[in-house]
Amino acid sequence: MKIMLIEDDNNKARAITSHLNQHGITEQHIIRAKNMSDFSAALSNDIGLFIIDLNLPNIDNGTTSQNGKAILECIIKAGKDDALLLAISSYPADFPELRDYFEANGCILANFQNKKGWQSTLDHLLTQLKKNIRFDFLIFCALQEERNPYIALTPGKHIVRGGIDCFDIELGENKGSVILLPQMGLVNAAITAGACIDKFKPKMVGMSGICGGFEGRAELGQLIISSMAYEYQSGKWASDGFLNEPYQVPTDHLTLTNLKALINDPDLINRIESGHKGARPSAAHSPVAGIFTSGSAVIADKKFIEQIKSIHRKVTALDMEVFAIHRAAELSPHKPPCICAKTVVDLCDSKKDDSIHSYGAYISAKFLIEAVKDFFRQR
User: Fold this and answer.
1) Which of 274, 298, 256, 258 is nearest to 362 (CA)?
2) What is the mean pLDDT of the chain?
3) Is the predicted pLDDT of residue 303 greater than 80, yes or no?
């Protein structure tokens, strides 16, 4: 995250910048806006702290006017209201008129002439800013076995943040974390994903791992990319049985189009299988985009599976978390695009075993790594 210093006075800007430098904030993390046009042009950056001057010209070499309220309103309307806000002014006589509006919107007013005062306030905000970690991407895994490939494939750092088990990695220039859910299932996935999206504000989220496939629609060892997901257990129990009411969450069109282009690469399966040591399926199958259905229980009953299969004539894969990840992203104010990919390791029957679990976790993780890189290349 960057700091935007909105200040036309060079002497004042130097004093504030020097204080930021003393706290380890380098020039590359400070955006200087000398007027309203500079401010508007830079507002799209990922900014964690705004340092605002109340009096600013509209354009280069323009006449200074009281633009403090306009700046604050623009920040809020641009959806940056979660950023930290500090207004440092050399004109404290303006404070009584502005205090109610600024403080109601979480912006602290500080007098530049009171050096110890504004520096102390800024120090407090910088401490808070360092705690507000943001990631470009988050990847969720329900099992340690599903996260292990990331640990083997990418250098990273294991850390627990507020009870969240994170493995921080970098893919190209983008920073992210592979998060291990506290337990399998829709509820754990929805709560963890919702909390992490709100806390870390990623530009995209994803999930990899293993799943079941419906016979005739998926093959053992086949990677399924989620084009849409729904919960098979939502609905109503009535006297004549269970009436399904599945709510569907699709992968957005642009993300899905790019994913389909990626899986159509004829060399993809060779790349994502490369490096795996251990059991493999008897035949390699090309990845496909398919529909996931999710529920809270492991299913190994053929009669029940046929009932679930009948809800949607094109449902491809069954798991316990994908719908929750999609739904958490959809409900978030940030609405990050969602990429979920899992490998079919059984056909939802009594013949379940774990012989290709490692293979499934490995190729889905390698695919997610490629998909994340491709996502940011496209942007």
Assistant:
1) 274
2) 93
3) no
- Whether residues 199 and 221 share a domain: the answer is yes
Find the DSSP H helices in the chain.
10-22, 36-42, 68-77, 95-104, 115-131, 144-153, 186-200, 253-263, 268-273, 302-309, 322-331, 357-378
Query: Which pair of tokens denotes residue 193?
Result: 């994903």
CA 347, chain centre distance (Å) = 31
Residue 277 lies in domain: 137-378
d(CA 39, CA 68): 12
Domain boundary among 82, 116, 131: 131
Identify whether the C-beta of residue 43 lies closer than 8 Å to the C-beta of residue 81. no
pLDDT of residue 348: 76
Domain boundary among 78, 109, 131: 131
State the Cα–Cα distance between residues 137 and 200, nearest whole angstrom.
9
Can you give the pLDDT at residue 350? 61
Asked if residue 311 has pLDDT above 90, the reply is no
Please give the model's pTM, rounded to 2 decimal places: 0.77
192 with 122, same domain: the answer is no
